[in-house]
Amino acid sequence: MKTKSKYQKLQALEHDAVSWNEGFWGNLFELCRETVLPSMRKALNEPDNGAVFSNFYIAAGLQEGERKGTMWSDGDCYKYMEAWSHVYGLTKDQAILDELDALIDVIAQAQLDNGYISTAMQLSDDKEYWTDLRDHELYNMGHLLTAASVHYRITGKDNFLAIAIKQADCLYDLFMPRPPELAHFGFNPSNTMGAVDLYRATGDERYLELAQCFVEMRGSQPGGGDQNQALVPLREETRAVGHAVTAGYLYCGATDVVAETGDEELLAGLLRIWDNAITSKMYITGGTSAQHHGASQRPEFGGSAGSVHEAFGYEYSLPNATAYNETCANIANAMWNWRLLHLSGDAKYSDIVELVLYNSMLSSMSLDGITFCYTNPLRWYGADHPLLSQDAYARWFISRCYCCPTNTARTIALLHNWFYSASDDGFWVHLYGSNSVNTTLAGGSAFALTQQTDYPWDERIRISIDEAPADAVSLMLRIPGWCDAADLRVNGEASGIPLRAGTYAELRRAWKAGDVIELSLPMQPRMLKAHPKAEEIRNHVAVTRGPIVYCLEGMDLPDGVSVMEVYVPDDMRLAAKMDDELLGGVVTIEGQARRLYEANGASALYLEAGKEIEEALDIRLIPYYAWNNRGIDEMTVWLPRRF
Fold this sequence. Notes:
Glycosyltransferase, Maltose phosphorylase, domain 3, alpha+beta, single chain, 32% helix, 7-stranded antiparallel β-sheet, globular
């Protein structure tokens, strides 16, 4: 098993190096273990759900019945299994291993002799393999490769890995000749990430070659379109286009290839795409897919590049009520930035990882961990909201498209792997939360620390060194881009090093057990505005505190007052307040806004300006991730300014 990627500046720690203590993410991990995943297994057994395990049993000949769910059902089941593997890595709960072994045995029986497995195809009489990219064969197979590689790395058992190897060999034989008719085939291309994961698990160079093939084929032949990023070869691309999940998965897989090959031309293309996506197409919550349905505009190609859905919008086109922001796309954004962080060590990537985690990923799941939503808009008109594709008034337990719940679960389950990294001469702290670390640094020296904090509600972070080598070690602490007044002390003394927002502060010394680092990241509430080209939110503000984006929900206003009547003066004073009884315990933000409304309740399309009634109005804002947990009502992130 490969332990290091040659061209990464940072390397992930061992899968069990971090253990959770009580705190924001530690509590969510326990929720995932005790509620989310057990509840999810019930949903995956529901015949009306979009993802079901029954297809494996039918394909294996173990039960009778008809195919259920979507064409991508298998992939979502594999994500569920991957999540349990991560949980097992920290808990060593034998019951988890037993459940996974039982499922793996069924999957092995469902797999064809040549290695092919995609049960929706196998159970469809009218489907021909490898003819329609919408059949999601590579999506299913890619998630199998990743889940099996994770399972092997954590458990040491090769039963799942054997299935993955057999499947990958089938893919190698099919794709390595690079048949032109399959040049654009990989819709939702988890297959590239999966091939690299299998290469890292086995060391077999063929699987890295396969991943490179998947990257090179995309856009290599005429006839591709922007929907699945197949119009332009990735090395030549300048924009983030098309379906935001397929894009995120493609960019992740290509970045994995760069990590193993050092392909500078490919990296240059990816960084051009990143700059376009982050500077002009990403929501303040970290969401990335503005369009439910639309067209991809390509002036450089003479106009439209075809219709797209669940897609990036035009530059600076960031609608609120019709924002799609599929949860899987948001998570893919974090996954991609996590990979770019490890190539570079640049804090701008970890800032985006944190932004997604606390906002557009976590907003997808109810506070009790049982129900979910697919889209993550930034404005909601309550029961009058026009429902577009995948929108819903209330969170659901099952859905015709169940990809997002399993993706959310596996992200929470693996998140301990994202908090820290190591480099040749240092240890990196990317995220903040209560946990303990026991690892081995380069050269074989033991290193252990404990992080104590009530982050993201509290600005104070205490890191105590529990074990350290005799030689000097650089401890790299992320100073978030939103924090311009950080304070850093070691054993009570000022660190004396410059602290700049959006960088890593380097503390280099010979550490000893008992050393204490105290980092303060002041979290004053802020009102942010958007670029003037973002027309939908021009002359609006959004309120943030630390990594949390806030929103106004209708039930926090007096009866008869609409969210749409609330305006914010530029000099509004904002006060943060911890409320242990609200929404599981959150910091709220309070202030005095203005209410502007029509005297007679007129609702004409156009009205004469300046005739509104204006009055003071006290408002309370809640974290965006916690909205839609108290019933159906209005909500908005962006509030118009009252000049």
